[in-house]
Design brief:
The strands form two sheets. A three-stranded antiparallel sheet has the order 3-4-5. A two-stranded antiparallel sheet has the order 1-2. The protein is built from four helices and five strands. It is mostly helical and 127 residues long. The protein starts with 11 loop residues before the first helix and ends with a helix. It has one domain. It is globular. Strand 4 and strand 5 form a beta hairpin. It is 47% helix and 8% strand.
Length: 127
């Protein structure tokens, strides 16, 4: 929501939403569509559901804008480890780190660029 200016990144409602997302949908910096510990039938018919790489980069950007730079940097650096040897990202990351879905995924790379730019700018201002 803060990425499209719907709510301020440091608004208490957004901060509590960010905390809830991290508590319920994030596993080691990877963001899932729904709680990966519960069985959820999403109607897609696939048994394999990974985390969404774009959402993980959105998390980095939201953490950055919320001023939680240490968390943002750690999540960003962890996400970089899921790139292929060519530096490309898939749509999803599986439970064992494998690329799932579309690969490479252009939208994910837009999220990467946006998160990297925002985080770099914020870290530069901090110095």
């Amino acid at each position: 929501m803060p990425l499209v200016k719907f709510i301020g990144p440091r608004d208490p409602r957004m901060l509590s939403t960010l905390d809830a997302v991290q508590r319920d949908l994030v596993s080691d910096s990877l963001v899932y569509r729904y709680d990966p510990r519960s069985a959820s039938d999403d109607g897609q018919g696939g048994a394999v559901e990974g985390s969404f790489s774009l959402c993980s980069f959105w998390l980095v950007e939201c953490l950055t804008r919320a001023g939680r730079l240490d968390e943002a940097r750690l999540a960003f650096e962890k996400m970089l480890t899921y790139a292929s040897r060519l530096g490309l990202f898939a749509e999803q990351v599986g439970d064992t780190g494998e690329a799932l879905g579309n690969h490479p995924q252009a939208f994910t790379h837009l999220g990467l660029i946006s998160a990297a730019w925002d985080l770099d700018r914020a870290l530069g201002e901090e110095r």
